[in-house]
Design goal:
Layout: E1 8-10, E2 13-15, E3 20-25, H1 28-45, E4 48-53, H2 58-67, H3 72-78, E5 81-85, H4 86-90, E6 91-92, E7 95-96, H5 98-108, E8 120-125, H6 133-150, E9 156-162, H7 168-176, E10 180-183, E11 186-189, H8 196-210, H9 212-215
Parallel strand pairs: 3-9, 3-10, 4-5, 4-8, 8-9
Antiparallel strand pairs: 1-2, 6-7, 10-11
């Protein structure tokens, strides 16, 4: 449930009431340079941290948090920190199911999650989504649909995309589904954002024209 909460400092500016962010990076070093201050601030504010990382990067991620003077062990025990694998989070039984993920994020939102935390700061590394055009299309549609969920909650959600993993066309669609964007290390209101209902109608029509499987459904 939405309530009045202070803005959140991130990437050289602040997040107000609109907190679904796509972030584009060229390297791990750039990503952590931009996002670690946002993560550190969350722990100082008492927010819950949910980090969804590449499976092979789990230990490196914890080491980087410790290097930023974050009490990883204490936060894990208290429930303030959850570090999850992106493949296990998004790909139950190896498949991506939009409706299942909408339910999972609804449960993850601070309005429904357990614990005495004012809000959640959720950072999701999206590399897994680049494996196959069919999966990319599902993820783009999901990113548009999930806006409605985050509009009902106070949480800040950063979807981290590394540019080398995605085509230019996909990057454009991702841009169009997020109201806020981090690019070049700075956050801004996204001038390319299209309201979810408008984008989904256009996107589904485009899929129908170009995907024989959809046409025959």
């Amino acid at each position: 449930m939405k309530r009045s909460v202070p803005p959140i400092a991130i990437a050289g500016s602040e997040l107000g009431d609109i907190r679904h962010v796509c972030a584009f990076f060229n390297s791990d070093e750039e990503e952590y340079r931009v996002l670690l201050p946002f993560i550190q601030d969350g722990f100082r504010c008492g927010d819950k941290a949910v980090h969804v990382v590449n499976p092979e990067a789990h230990q490196d991620h914890l080491d980087r948090l410790r290097g930023a003077a974050i009490d990883v062990d204490g936060a894990s025990v208290s429930g303030q920190l959850e570090v999850r694998s992106n493949t296990e989070t998004y790909l139950s039984d190896g498949e991506f199911d939009q409706d299942r993920m909408l339910r999972a994020f609804e449960q993850m939102a601070s309005g429904n999650a357990g614990g005495n935390f004012p809000r959640s700061r959720i950072v999701c590394r999206m590399d897994w989504a680049g494996a196959g055009q069919s999966r990319v299309r599902e993820v783009v549609e999901f990113e548009a649909r999930v806006n409605g969920l985050w509009q009902r909650h106070n949480d800040a959600v950063v979807c981290s995309y590394h540019l080398s993993k995605f085509s230019g066309d996909t990057v454009i669609d991702i841009l169009r589904t997020h109201p806020m964007v981090i690019i070049g290390g700075m956050i801004q209101r996204n001038p390319f954002y299209v309201p979810s209902e408008v984008f989904l109608n256009e996107f589904r029509e485009r899929r129908t024209r170009h995907d024989p499987a959809v046409q025959g459904a």
